[in-house]
Amino acid sequence: MSAQPVLAALVEPNRREILRLVRDRALAAGDIARHFDVSQQAISQHLKVLREAGLVEVRPDRQRRLYVVRPEGLDPLVAELAGFWPDALQRLKAAVERAE
């Protein structure tokens, strides 16, 4: 997957906040919506964009659908950014590995 859908999804501030909400625990759309002053439909649309970009996954839980972040969804963006500074990132990686 390219970084473009990830970047497009992250441009919207509410989507970034949704990712923060579901970073550590799965939440239903209704639980997410309670944190925002927008309609349930707007939250559902934001979740759809995040899901299509690979940033969240849906887990069925009885009658609900729970959303949780997919950290690996950021990999295309990380790879894109690494292309700007490949040498510096390699040096940082080597330094961190030496420190371990």
Q: Give the low-confidence spans.
A: none
CATH topology, what is it called?
Arc Repressor Mutant, subunit A
The radius of gyration computed from the alpha-carbon positions, rounded to a whole number of angstroms, is 16 Å
Query: How many distinct beta strands?
Result: 3
Cα separation of the termini: 32 Å
Q: Mean pLDDT across all residues, rounded? A: 92
Number of domains: 1
In CATH, what is the class?
Mainly Alpha
Estimated structural class:
alpha+beta
Main beta-sheet annotation: 3 strands, antiparallel
Q: Which descriptor suits the 3D outline? A: elongated
* Strand line-up in the sheet with most strands: 1-3-2
Strand content: 5-15%
Summarize the amount of helix as a percent range: 55-70%
Tell me the CATH superfamily.
Winged helix-like DNA-binding domain superfamily/Winged helix DNA-binding domain
Report the CATH architecture. Orthogonal Bundle
Structure description:
The protein has helices at 4-10, 13-21, 29-33, 40-52, 75-82, 86-99; strands at residues 27-28, 56-61, 64-69. With 100 residues, it is of the alpha+beta class. Strands 1-3-2 form a three-stranded antiparallel β-sheet. A hairpin with a 2-residue loop joins strand 2 (56-61) and strand 3 (64-69). The chain has one domain: Winged helix-like DNA-binding domain superfamily/Winged helix DNA-binding domain (Arc Repressor Mutant, subunit A, Orthogonal Bundle), CATH 1.10.10.10.
